[in-house]
């Protein structure tokens, strides 16, 4: 399985951009990078995913390096409600199952 | 639109009892997944359904755990003869198809406590 490495914790000031890095050096050519977040007592929330190109939606931007060995999730204007654990996941395929394999994630604290 | 719905939201039961957890996926989603999250632990995959069949049951921790899905919609996760180590939050997710380009959307889980 392609593994991911994320910092254990980060913080940023409210209103500033939060840039969350992720290393996935063993990623295969057809594996997608997914980002989820989990706020206390809730289920994981899908944020964004991508294969090669940079992606943007209403929640965030995903920047994937050209060699695909790392990516960065960008929350352009962090708010206090963005405080959560952020998971970077490489979507693996095993026996036609596209299960998600979660690591420990990055605990992001947005400071007032 | 309606998201993934799980019931009950909380369940407390005595060791040795059987429990059933229910998941209503997003309408039209053919793929359904069960995960669990123990206190202080990460999310652990349990089982995957495509329609009513389960091509991947590799995460079920023991034969006390089983799941079924009927009508390509609702799924039930059953734990027999519950043990204290079964205490966890059980999460269900669904996606439109099971492909690698289809995001999974999660419910808020059932918090199971075994006394």
List the topology elements:
The complex is a heterodimer of chains A (112) and B (115).
Chain A: E1 9-13, E2 18-23, E3 33-38, E4 45-50, E5 55-56, E6 61-64, E7 70-75, E8 84-90, E9 106-111
Parallel strand pairs in A: 1-9
Antiparallel strand pairs in A: 2-7, 3-4, 3-8, 5-6, 6-7, 8-9
Chain B: E1 5-7, E2 10-13, E3 19-24, E4 31-37, E5 43-50, E6 53-56, E7 65-69, E8 75-79, E9 88-95, E10 105-106, E11 110-114
Parallel strand pairs in B: 2-11
Antiparallel strand pairs in B: 1-3, 3-8, 4-5, 4-9, 5-6, 7-8, 9-10, 9-11
Can you walk through the features of this model?
The complex is a heterodimer of chains A (112) and B (115). With 112 residues, chain A is mostly beta strands. Chain A has strands at residues 9-13, 18-23, 33-38, 45-50, 55-56, 61-64, 70-75, 84-90, 106-111. In chain A, a hairpin with a 4-residue loop joins strand 5 (55-56) and strand 6. Chain A is globular and about 45 Å long. The N and C termini of chain A lie far apart (38 Å). By secondary structure, chain B is mainly beta. Chain B has no helices and 11 strands. Chain B has strands at 5-7, 10-13, 19-24, 31-37, 43-50, 53-56, 65-69, 75-79, 88-95, 105-106, 110-114. Chain B is globular, with a radius of gyration of 13 Å. The termini of chain B are far apart. The relative contact order of chain B is 0.33. Chain A binds chain B through residues 30-32, 34, 41-46, 49, 51, 91, 93-105, and chain B through 4, 31, 33, 35, 42-45, 48, 50, 55-56, 58-59, 91, 93, 95, 98-109.
């Amino acid at each position: 399985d392609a593994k991911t490495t994320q910092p254990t914790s980060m913080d940023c000031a409210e209103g500033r951009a939060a840039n969350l890095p992720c290393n996935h050096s063993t990623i295969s050519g057809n594996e997608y990078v997914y980002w989820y977040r989990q706020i206390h007592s809730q289920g994981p929330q899908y944020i964004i995913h991508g294969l090669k190109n940079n992606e943007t939606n209403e929640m965030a931007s995903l920047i994937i390096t050209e060699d695909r060995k790392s990516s960065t999730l960008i929350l352009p204007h962090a708010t206090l409600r963005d405080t959560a654990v952020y998971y970077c996941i490489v979507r693996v395929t095993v026996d036609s199952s596209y299960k998600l394999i979660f690591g420990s994630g990055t605990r992001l604290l947005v400071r007032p | 639109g309606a998201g993934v719905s799980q019931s009950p939201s909380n369940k407390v039961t005595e060791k040795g009892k059987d429990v059933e957890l229910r998941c209503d996926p997003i309408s039209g989603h053919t793929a359904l997944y069960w995960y669990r999250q123990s206190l202080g632990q990460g999310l652990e995959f349990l089982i995957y359904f495509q329609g009513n069949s389960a091509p991947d049951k590799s995460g079920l921790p023991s034969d006390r755990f089983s799941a079924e899905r009927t009508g390509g919609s609702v799924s039930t996760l059953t734990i027999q003869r519950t043990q204290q180590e079964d205490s966890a939050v059980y999460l269900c997710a669904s996606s439109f198809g099971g492909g690698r380009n289809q995001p999974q959307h999660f419910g808020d889980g059932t918090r199971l406590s075994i006394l």
